[in-house]
Amino acid sequence: MTALVTYFDPQPGTSDLPARLPSPFNPALPHPIARRAAEALKDQLRRDGSTPAVGFDGIHRGKMFGVLVVAAADDRIGYLRGFSGMLGGSWRVDGFVGPLFDGAARDAMWPAAQAELIAFDQRLRELSLGHAANAARADLAALDAAQDAAAAELAARCETARQQRHDRRQGMAALAMPPAEHEAALHTLSQESRADGAAARRQRAAHHQEREPLACAVRALDEKIADLKHCRAARSCELVEQIFDGYQIPSVRGQRRSLRALFAPATPPGGSGDCAAPKLFGHAQRERLRPLALAEFWWGPPPVTGGRHNGLYYPACRGKCGPVLAHMLDGVAVDPAPVFGGGEIAADEPRTVFEDRWLVVVDKPVGLLSVPGRGGLLRDSVLTRLRDRHPDATGPMVVHRLDLDTSGLLLAAKDAETHVALQRQFIRREIAKSYVAWVDGPVARDQGTIELALRGDLDDRPRQIHDPVHGKSAITDWRVLARDGGRTRVALLPRTGRTHQLRVHAAHAMGLAAPIVGDRLYGQHDGRLMLHAETLAFTHPRTGQRLEIRRAAPF
Predict the structure, then answer these.
(1) For 124, phi and psi rounded to 5 degrees?
(2) Is the CB of residue 473 less than 8 Å from the CB of residue 416?
């Protein structure tokens, strides 16, 4: 199996290697030796992209690939190649490491399990769309239509008769009729009205009696479908648990744990253990190869949800790979995962741009949180620093937020009443904000509007993804300010304020299709995020004055 190692020629020197394994979760560009291996794999993918035997038809949907630089027992340096999930419908492809699960055990159970699930699906299709089901539903629909027409016809006749009785009562009032005759005429009209009501009740009873057998057959069919769906779901859960148990994840210390144990008490996310990084580390451990550096990149068209671009490097996802890699690398000398928001920020930051007795506008620097992190682990923030500056005030209270990586204007209130009034302006979209950004790519048009609904990526927080079904509406207006080579400077004017809205709208293929320069989540992390909140316009809640504040971007 060590034949899967591709050795460097010429061999790198000691100074070309990292002192210890860089964190797989660091969004910075991979170590140069890992990039060297990754670029070689990209060249192979370009050459063999249409080779059916290798199965690269799967690349048309885009996929994560990875390389792991390793040292063999004889100290030769090479690298392993891997891919996430399946490639061209296969778990095993020549030249790439295999999956973490026991292939023989999976092959022994999966065909029968798959046939069982297919049988469930076929039965469900028969019950839902088969001839008997279609006939039963069609008969009931036809009967309902006929009964509705009959009911409407009777209702129309009754309404006509009711109007005629009304007219007769009006005419009787104008006639000088003897009391007995008048009473008899009213009784006749009342009897006619009761007869119409009785006719309607008889029709409803007859319709119900006629409809019930057909309705009962359709209800029985629906109950069978519901029961079958329940059985299929239960069986699917059993099979998923069986599959999860087939992943016995090794560690350097020789311990093996199942996926379910690593994620307990939660259920492992779908695809856990099938990413490129765990497969690469797993193969290295089996073959006693020492891991030196990892690089993962996306290859192919971007996913519909966005956030991935052909050829760009990305860190391992924390949702699926966090617990897995933490176990696998226990005992390996590895750099700690970066903690964003815990860096050193100058004591005089953020700088005040506007301040009076009721509110303050500051210029937030890159790397400083707007508010403290959850659990108090990252206390340093704009909010805590403002409160340290104003210990006697009831506030300040941040009115809105900027991402950790974003710089620019941030508004805070010094008292609760002002805070509520400013938040009300945000809710009513009466506060205008504009941002300036450099995006990594050419933008063809000069201006436009992006509407892409967003929600959190449950498997890779804090990333956001485009989801037209479950996402929340997010709208951004934009216009080009300048073009410089392969980059474009744009003004971004958000109408809504979703998390990472501007970053996703810039990176997504249906947005600008050009991630913001330096974006560690949706683009390529190489220096600061080139996104700055440049202008802020709002009505002062105490003076009524319209304020327009600007702080030019530092790039």
Answers:
(1) -65, -40
(2) no
Regarding beta strands 397-398 and 351-355, do their DSSP bridges make them parallel or antiparallel, or are they unpaired? unpaired
> Could you read off the pLDDT of 65-121 as tens digits, one per residue?
999 999 999 999 999 999 999 998 889 999 999 999 988 888 888 889 989 999 999
The sign of the CA dihedral 538, 539, 543, 545 is positive
**Residue 120 structure tokens:** 């469930």
The answer, yes or no, to whether residue 56 has pLDDT greater than 50, is no
CA nearest to 21, candidates 255, 294, 378 = 294
Q: Which of 257, 335, 249 is nearest to 291 (CA)?
A: 335
Tell me how far apart the alpha carbons of residues 136 and 148 are, in angstroms, rounded to a whole number.
18
Lowest mean pLDDT among 42-51, 147-156, 284-293, 383-392: 42-51
**What is the CB neighbour count within 10 angstroms for residue 267?**
14
- Nearest CA to 302 among 310, 290, 291, 312? 310
Residue 367 backbone class (left: φ over 0; alpha: ψ -120 to 50; beta: rest): left
List the one residue out of 310, 31, 481, 227 whose CA is nearest residue 492: 481
The residue to which tokens 């057959």 are assigned: 217
Q: Which two tokens stand for residue 426?
A: 């945000």
**Residue 77 DSSP SS3:** strand
In the chain, what is the straight-line distance between the N-terminal and C-terminal CA atoms, in Å? 50
pLDDT at position 294 is 98
pLDDT at residue 253, rounded to an integer: 87
Tokens of 271: 């695809």
Distance CA 474, CA 495 (A): 8
Average pLDDT of 363-385?
88
Give the whole-angstrom CA distance, residue 322 versus residue 262.
Answer: 10
Length of the chain: 555
Q: Are 81 and 6 in contact (CB under 8 A)?
A: yes
Residue 536 phi, psi (nearest 5): -145, 125
What is the Cα–Cα distance from 206 to 212, expressed in whole angstroms?
A: 10
Active site residue 403: yes
How far is 109 from 238, CA to CA, in rounded Å? 12
Provide the Cα torsion 22, 26, 29, 31; round to 10°.
Answer: 0
Q: What is the spatial order of strands in the sheet that 6-7 belongs to? A: 6-7, 77-83, 63-71, 290-299
Q: Which structure tokens are listed for 257?
A: 């744990």
Map 326-371 to HEC letters: HHHCCCCCECCCCCCCCCCCCCCCCEEEEECCCEEEEEECCCCECC
- Statement: residue 272 has pLDDT above 80: yes
* Interhelix angle 276-286/318-328, nearest 10 degrees: 10
Q: How many angstroms separate the CA atoms of 94 and 279, rounded?
A: 15
Please, are residues 474 and 454 in contact by the beta-carbon 8 Å criterion?
yes
What is the model's pTM?
0.78
Give the separation between CA 348 and CA 359, rounded to whole angstroms: 18
Instruction: State the Cα torsion 499-502-507-511 to the nearest 10°.
Output: 110
Catalytic residue, chosen from 196, 274, 403, 519, is: 403
Cα–Cα distance, 299 to 313 (Å, whole number)? 10
> How far apart are the C-alpha atoms of 527 and 535, rounded to whole Å?
23
